[in-house]
Amino acid sequence: MLAPRSIRLIAPSGYCHNQDAAQRAVSRLQTDGHQVENLSAITRRFQRFAGEDAERLNDVNQLARLTTLPDIVLAVRGGYGATRLLDKIDYVGLQRQLLNQPVALCGHSDFTAIQLALLAQTGLITFSGPMLAGNFGAETLSEFTLSHFWQALTSPTVNIGWRSQSPDKGRWQGTLWGGNLAMICSLMGTPWMPQIEDGILVIEDVNEHPFRIERMLIQLQQSGILARQRAIITGSFTSTSLAAYDNGFDFATVWQRLRDEFHIPVISDLAFGHDADTVTLPLGSRATLQLEQGEAQLAFTGHPTLR
Fold it and tell me: Which residues pair with 104 in a beta bridge?
């Protein structure tokens, strides 16, 4: 039985268009004994956003002023809007309040921008994982996602294993970082992009064709970022379809070109991203990645864990 936790909602991005899912998620969490705070973030709306910029920014900056910290800070959903806030976030206050504290900031998609900015500016390790509406509010709750979420948040050392189609083999150690690829690329050339040496870069995306994914990866390579990585892990790339025009150009060919042209291992097929089943990964943690005969193992440590 899981210990009851305090969960504070934040909505720094898009309006939660699936209100039923969000309310279903809140009911589930409350039924399990968790205390859910800042419920107004679910229903706020301004244009396509979850409130005006100042309201969404306050969700984030208020974390620096709370007298009692929650156990979990959970993004309601992604969408668009986080990058509008990056230059106004109280990084000093958040670092002072949250660094080395047993608090888990969790989300993915558009939230990647805030997560990487926090890593770059404060060293805060946050969790790329499920969100309120899309995951906890799914019509069928994924036990895979839930078990990996709680494992990552409560275990000082976590090991994840999966089958990979990658032809690579070896063992790599470094800093685990990444998230949504489009958001990573949107931070290039800004102060919000972490400068990661010896990284294990994990990527995922949604609604992006393989040629767009390749274009973003080439941008990372030409900027010198890929040369500083030990390996790449690819998660799910969903809600896109190939056409006859592609003539065999698919994600597998994109990954192989990375290996051939840029000489970087690409370990594929991790359940991570916008699918119902997703692991939870601490961005900024210390990680070891291994692949042997199609069996991949990722171990990470050094992340905040709940008491």
Answer: 72
CB 135 within 8 A of CB 271: no
Q: What pLDDT digit, counting tens, does each position of 121-152 carry?
A: 999 999 999 999 999 999 999 999 999 999 99
Nearest to 49, CA basis, from 79, 9, 20: 79
Query: Which residues are known to be catalytic?
Result: 109, 204, 274
Rg (CA), the chain: 18
Pairing of the two strands 281-283 and 126-128: antiparallel
H or E element in which residue 287 lies: strand 286-292
Q: Give CA separation, 69 vs 31, 110, 297, in Å.
A: 22, 24, 33
Single out the residue of 196, 162, 171 nearest to residue 285, CA to CA: 196
Give the C-alpha separation, 223 to 220, whole Å.
5
Tally Cβ neighbours within 10 Å of residue 2: 11
Cβ(119)–Cβ(94) below 8 Å: no
- 50 touches 111 (CB < 8 A): no
d(CA 186, CA 245): 28
Is 218 within 8 Å of 249 (Cβ atoms)? no
* Residue pLDDT, tens place only, 66-109: 999 999 999 999 999 999 999 999 999 999 999 999 999 999 99
275: left (phi over 0), alpha (psi -120 to 50) or beta: beta
Nearest to 168 by CA among 266, 270, 70, 306: 266
Q: Number of helices and strands (H, E) in the chain? A: 9, 13
Task: Tell me if 49 sits within 8 A of 20, measured CB to CB.
Answer: no
Cα 179 to Cα 187: distance, rounded to the nearest angstrom = 12
Task: Name the residue among 246, 10, 7, 20 with its Cα closest to residue 110.
Answer: 10
Amino acid in the structure at residue 191:
P
Report the alpha-carbon distance of residue 105 to residue 127 in Å, rounded.
Answer: 6
